[in-house]
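Let us work through a complete example step by step.
Step 1: write down the sequence.
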Amino acid sequence: ADVDTVLGAVVRELGPGRATTIAGLASPRDGVEFSDLSVSEGEESLLFGTYSSLGTSWVVDDAVPTFLGVPDGQQRAARAALGRGEVVALVPAGSERSREIPDARLTVDLSDESGDQTQTTLTAPVHVVAIDATYTSASGIIPPSLLPRLKLTSKPAGVVVPPGISTEEQQAVTESVAAIDSGGYFYVERGYQQDDASRIIRWVLVL
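Step 2: predict the structure and record it as tokens.
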């Protein structure tokens, strides 16, 4: 199912204004798919730690989406970098630090229907944002103005719902999405949740 159809199902269950479409990277050529975008400084590659259900590892946007978890103190610099046409790379603070890479090497991997791969490499500035987390929600943000240099385009990749969804709403959206596409799913990040057994054990210990 296409993203617009999924968005329609979410809106039907939650109402308008509670869902946002995410754009990701894509190849403009028929029969060719975008595979990966890597960032290097000299011979050293940036160490990304991405664990995400966004539908894309690179978000195409000229703003800093709140769901990416960019710290408040770093959002202004990230927005300014995007305004200059720079990539904003998101990395775990344990592996990298926030900094500017003025001449980073960007490598785009594409693959065709036969499995053959091609690469496009260019040099461009990258603004690195270190996030205090083991994993980031995406590898980073690509400003739309950079897409022609990357020889890429964008396409809808997923739908994000902001915090505040109930378990009943979650179940309703899950069923609607599954009815559209058996391979589709609706994931809600609620953080650590204790199970009943853990609560019972803790209560017994306290008593």
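Step 3: interpret the result. The CA atoms of residues 28 and 153 lie 6 Å apart.
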